[in-house]
């Protein structure tokens, strides 16, 4: 029975719907976990420093395919660990500019995967926040400076801030010990709105972050619909479950013998704006009518 080594920066408790989607993708190629394929799971739970060891462990087990998801840190750890085992990656950056693959159509080497562009959308999300809360009030940003794409994220946000003439306040957190001080720094500002940057660490601390934004009654933009579904005010980004289905499809193709160097990287191009009216009512916020009209989904 072939074995897929699955490594992620995320945590299992916030990824169950994503795993179901990944298994569905495998099923499209005829693979069913426990029947004709086994999956070894490894989770960093937001601690990127654990990823190299997780990759080495799975490679030592001589897995048939290595699936590296949950952001660029997971991808780089996998790529540095093996040049022979086929890798399926999930990246929020431009995979060519990030040095993950040689090209989209012919990735080269032993790696291919799915590009979800999460880290490339901060300026777009900032613009949406500016529409959602017009004016010149301060926008707070939560960022993890230890996340590989963080410098690009901050650069994009600073450019958007200058273009829109909207002041920006940045708070940084890369682990649990730094979250409360970051929340304290944000609480010390008079914020018109907030934006949480795309980062798997923040995905694994979703409940804490949503609870903070609700307690401060500050309108906040998140990256994935799971935030809005759990009580966050609004999200804009790809449908992550669809991306995980594609991870499964790609892994299935590799298990059937397709070479990763020749399997094009697939880009998830559909983005969705999800708003939670129940949360809006709870924090006393009203979306501009034109903004609400653009939503792909409204949670009531």
Helical proportion, percent range? 40-55%
Structure class: alpha/beta
User: Biggest β-sheet, characterized?
Assistant: 7 strands, mixed
How are strands sequenced across the largest beta sheet? 7-6-8-9-10-12-13
First and last CA, distance: 46 Å
Q: How many structural domains? A: 2
> Which consecutive residue ranges, at least 5 long each, have pLDDT under 50?
none
In CATH terms, the superfamily of the largest domain is Response regulator
Proportion of residues in β-strands:
15-25%
**Basic shape:** elongated
Number of DSSP-assigned strands: 13
Would you identify the CATH architecture of the largest domain?
3-Layer(aba) Sandwich
Order of helices and strands: EHEHEHEEHEHEHEHHEHEHEEHHE
CATH class designation of the largest domain: Alpha Beta
Rg calculated over all Cα atoms: 19 Å
Number of helices: 12
What's the CATH topology name of the largest domain? Rossmann fold
Mean pLDDT: 95
Describe this structure in words.
The protein has two domains: 3-117 and 239-269, Rossmann fold; 119-237 and 272-299, Response regulator (Rossmann fold, 3-Layer(aba) Sandwich). It is 40% helix and 21% strand. It has twelve helices and 13 strands. The protein has helices at 16-28, 51-60, 72-81, 122-132, 150-164, 176-187, 200-204, 206-216, 225-230, 240-255, 277-283, 289-293, and strands at residues 3-8, 38-43, 65-69, 87-91, 111-115, 138-143, 168-172, 191-196, 220-222, 234-238, 266-267, 271-276, 297-299. The strands form two sheets. The chain has a seven-stranded mixed sheet with strand order 7-6-8-9-10-12-13, with helices on both faces. A six-stranded parallel sheet has the order 2-1-3-4-5-11, sandwiched between helices.
